[in-house]
Amino acid sequence: MQAFIERFRATASKARQVQSRVKLLEKEEIVQVREERATVRFRFPEAPRSGREVARLDRVSKGYGGRSVYRDLSAQVLRADRIAVIGLNGAGKTTLLKLLAQEIAPDEGTLALGTTW
Q: What's the pLDDT score for residue 66?
């Protein structure tokens, strides 16, 4: 607002707007700006280059209660593969991602993740 007042103070066509903003500025409280804090910077080391095979699921089964989400799922993810996980609600998208992130363990089968095999 102060910049607008300084810029258009001498302009006749903006005189009414300038006067209105001067009145608004007089009514406002002046706030003291605190000293700026230093910014936090993060540096992460480069991730090691993965091997040719990033993930392998071999006959993986997973279920909750009596309901089976995956049965005998086998898949392979290679380096540079692009994958989309899509499906209806309750189809097992989050379960698959949790299996790959090793947040949950499969009921049967093997899940291998790594960078060197």
A: 87
Check: CB of residue 68 under 8 Å from CB of residue 93. Answer: no
Per-residue pLDDT for 117 more than 60? Answer: no
DSSP secondary-structure letter at 29?
P
Reference 24, options 52, 47, 46, 5; nearest CA is 5
Question: What pLDDT is attached to residue 10?
Answer: 80
C-alpha 112/C-alpha 10 separation (Å) is: 74
Residue 92 zone, left/alpha/beta (φ > 0; ψ -120 to 50; rest): left
Under 8 Å between Cβ of 69 and 89: no
